[in-house]
Amino acid sequence: MPRKLTPPVVTAESKAFFDAARAGKFMVPVCTACGKTHWYPRAICPFCTSDKVEWHAASGRGTIYTFSVMRRVKEPYAIAHVTLAEGPTMLTNIVDCDLDTLAIGQAVRIVFQETENGPPVPMFKPV
Amino acid sequence: MTIKGKAYIAGVFEHPTRLAPDKSVAQLHAEVALGALADAGLTRDDVDGYFCSGDAPGPGPASMAEYMNLKLRNVDSTEIGGASYTLLAAHAAEAIALGKCDVALVTLAGRPRSEGMATGTAPRPRDPNQPEAGWEAPYAITTANGYAMCAMRHMYEYGTTSAQLAWVKVAASHHAQHNPHAMLPEVVTVEDVVNSPLIADPLHRLDCCVISDGGGALVIVRPEIAKKLKRPLVKIIGAGEAVKHLTGGTFDLTVSGAARAGPMAFAEAGVSPADIKYASIYDSFTITVIIQLEDLGFCAKGAGGKFVADGNLISGVGKLPFNTDGGGLCNNHPANRGSMTKVIEAVRQLRGEAHPVVQVKNCDLALAQGTGFQLATRHGSATLIMERE
Asked: What is the full DSSP assignment across B181-216?
């Protein structure tokens, strides 16, 4: 039984992402001025300050940059930073796995997880 | 423009309490303020600058200024978490250097222990307008598992071991045994640390700092005032500050903001890491110390684990005596904010007033380093270098 997830705050900047998430699509922000993908998503590109940021469908593939299994709670869980195939590294959880077998560099893929009374959020599970 | 030699730390006070169920936070702030003023030989009425951070009750400095009935001409309430006090000491020196105040008071106090706060293992509440809130809150990042991710990556890249992390705690415990106020005065071994329960892989319970009530204060003054007082002269000679964040999703979690703050402070002071006789290094967790020591240049990036091993941080034993009060790992972590006590112990060392067993001989140059907020996402870093005159 996975732990209950705090729903994300949805803002004017993030609404499109979470609308897509409800349809099972994982989108990433791509700046058409500098061509870079950033995370977390913003209306203003953090690399070049352009506002020409668009949502692009992402592959949903990534690798674990680092992680930690929180032990001192009722339901242990794995916090992680995952480096997306598209470039940026994002904070997330690793789920649907044996927490004792996780490793840095491990390949993972997207799996949306339901939150309490909110939109689903992107998490990852080992490939 | 430099702060070098423009301001002196004339008074310091660390509240002796570690559990204060019968006091208010404002009361603790006032008690440490009066303690530091008495230490300097000054009074409340001498204060014309007040510097506080997010632990001071009320937004900004106004509520505490009123509670203590201060008459001020300069205030600053910069919030960079636990690193705020090494930063505020420097900001006070800047204000003094510019003639904006003569006697600056810096206070810290809090009661997380009395309030039963799960400091490290539960997510902290955040303002929904924080732009990252929706991208982080669902994942339950906490203080402990965030710093643990930094440790995990450091181990992966550099081969750092749990036993090396443990040496930081072992050194702190060797110092804490001489501190009658320390929460954890027992000497521990590497085995004790690595056999303590895992909190968040790879950090064990004894890799984590204590949760304590209490506080501390500094009184920072113009040189002319310092020289009229009876206390040993401790001069601020350099400072640096930085905010490090995730840079749009491209980052290295084995590096902290100290990699930028530290060199600024050394450049202003005109000294190098090899010159430092004593270092107070913020020790929210053992890994925090290793990463900051590397970033400050006490050893190469990745060599921190080897550097701290075998007692190298123990006063009288190793090359770099650190946190001779026992630090946050063993002594005190008031308000979950560690850099105030870091400055206070550095001043004790420079005055020759540390416990005789841990006092560094001829300690004329010391550094205090803070890291605040979350090392695995965004944090503040502030370095302060002080000299005995």
From this structure: T-S--S---HHHHHTSPEEETTEEGGGBPP-B-EEE
Residue B141: closest CA among chain A residues belongs to which residue? A79
pLDDT tens column, B269-295: 999 999 999 999 999 999 999 999 999
Q: Say how many CB pairs under 8 Å bridge A and B.
A: 127
DSSP structure string for B285-312: BHHHHHHHHHHHTSS-TT-HHHHHGGGT
* Predicted pLDDT of residue B169: 98
- For chain A, the domain total comes to 1
CA distance linking residue B43 with residue B36, whole number of Å:
9
Domain ranges, ordered by start, for chain B: 8-116+215-388
B144 touches chain A (CB under 8 A): yes
Q: Which amino acid makes up residue A51?
A: D
Q: How many whole angstroms separate alpha carbon B242 and alpha carbon B252? A: 16
CB B317 within 8 A of CB B286: no
Q: Is the Cβ–Cβ distance between A117 and A103 less than 8 Å?
A: no
The pLDDT of residue B191 is above 90: yes
Per the CB < 8 A criterion, the answer to whether B310 and B372 are in contact is no
**What is the model's pLDDT at position B121?**
84
Q: Give the pLDDT mean for A59-76.
A: 96
Q: Do B137 and A68 touch (CB under 8 A)?
A: no
Pairing of strands B203-204, B198-200: antiparallel
pLDDT value of residue B126: 82
pLDDT for residue B124: 83
Nearest CA in chain A to B150: A66
On the 0-12 / 13-18 / 19+ scale of CB atoms within 10 A, B351 is: middle
Q: Which domain holds residue A75?
A: 15-126
- Give the pLDDT confidence score for residue B127 in this predicted structure: 87
Domain-located, residue A5 = no
- Partner-chain residue, chosen from B123, B138, B142, that has the shortest CB–CB distance to A8: B138
β-partners of residue B90 are none
Q: What does the pLDDT read at residue B59? A: 87
CATH of B8-116+215-388, one of 3.40.309.10, 2.60.40.10, 3.40.50.150, 3.40.47.10: 3.40.47.10
Q: Per the structure block, which two tokens stand in for A123?
A: 């998490």
In a domain, A56, yes or no: yes
Mean pLDDT of the residues in chain B: 97
Predicted ipTM > 0.95: yes
